[in-house]
């Protein structure tokens, strides 16, 4: 039944349309966790690949290079070698259909909708190591071992020992810090290739919907322009002194040997050496030897002009070109690696935090954390996958469901209060706003302003208002301090006990650090 090309064409079109609808339906569901998001992306990726495969098959059918589709359409119209017989073609096809159902009496149509629902619940198998945590972290331990056992590895300035894994996570994405001469080694090329392969493999598993070919195509286009301008970081001179391009002199600007002599001895010597020519002799002899290359190809020059051991410059030029191609290839791989690191920047930062966290844990704590992560994964997989209906975006309650709307209005959670002292942080609801004055964020902000966090500053959220109030409080407290113009301090006959004399009420009070007596004097002054 499905062996004809027309039936295959119809089924492929139906398959493409069904997968498109499934992709839209799957992407409308918001993943509840990183694991669910990963599975969703891989499901969509698999469906896109299925659409691509079906489309390629359809293109092949429509091109009809063997005229099979054309012949089948002609047969449906009853065209035969003897003429056209529509009824004969119709009954032949009817007989074929009846024979098929007679041979397969129990065959039934597939339930496309049931199959689609099962496809949306599928959890594709994505292989991650234990350190990668479903794509949340990098696992660079093998590359780290390869790095510290190389000559180009960064070492501690004091101990001269290789850097630790946590420090390696900071430097592996900075190849420009490595010397260009060390990059020519086979060891570095292998390390760079392994690093690039791992990052590509991780990115394809973590972000299956991203088109890496398009990203790398853009990187290559930008790289060509920057390479020609010498603006690639770490390769500003196209490999430093390794390449001889900077030593060449453009002879089109010189019409005579005497003009070329103005370049100088050193420049001429470098240019001759870069071409494999002898660099000895006087200034004029060097200029004449170099000027010969303006109108005569290097291959046609007399062998006496070349350095002994280089029979023809073509070999030397090929070696230089080959070396430059190697340098360019290394620089291009570094550019691709840097772009991948930029796209995986969040993952790299999470890896650093995870490594630092593990270093502070004991063996028992690490094992307990692994058990908790496994339990969390099992819980996420067993959770109800239905989407919670929350059009008003109400806060979630203790049961993981939106709180009632009347409770939302009762607590005034729709009102927003901003506190400039807390860094313009927002607090929703009057209760949360009043409570935040005693929390660490507000206390820290007041401490930064140099103001004590007392009850006097409740309801104050502006920095300017807080400073103004603090100045008024300080000025008011200045009245209660000891003032030489109104008060005096002296000793009595009984000894060195201090007395406070109030000039307004002419009363003396012995000061034994008695707060009640001191308060009486201050009240007296304030009332006066």
Automatic annotation (TrEMBL):
Domain Matrin-type, first and last residues per copy: 417-448
Keyword set, alphabetical order: Metal-binding, mRNA processing, mRNA splicing, Nucleus, Phosphoprotein, Zinc, Zinc-finger
GO biological process terms on file: mRNA splicing, via spliceosome
Signal sequence residues: none
Bias (Acidic residues) ranges: 370-385
UniProt-annotated stretches for the region Disordered: 358-385
Pfam family, one: SF3a60_bindingd
One Gene Ontology cellular component: spliceosomal complex
GO molecular function terms attached to this record: RNA binding; zinc ion binding
Similarity-based family: Belongs to the SF3A3 family.
Name used for this protein in its record: Matrin-type domain-containing protein
Lineage of the species this protein comes from: Eukaryota, Viridiplantae, Streptophyta, Embryophyta, Tracheophyta
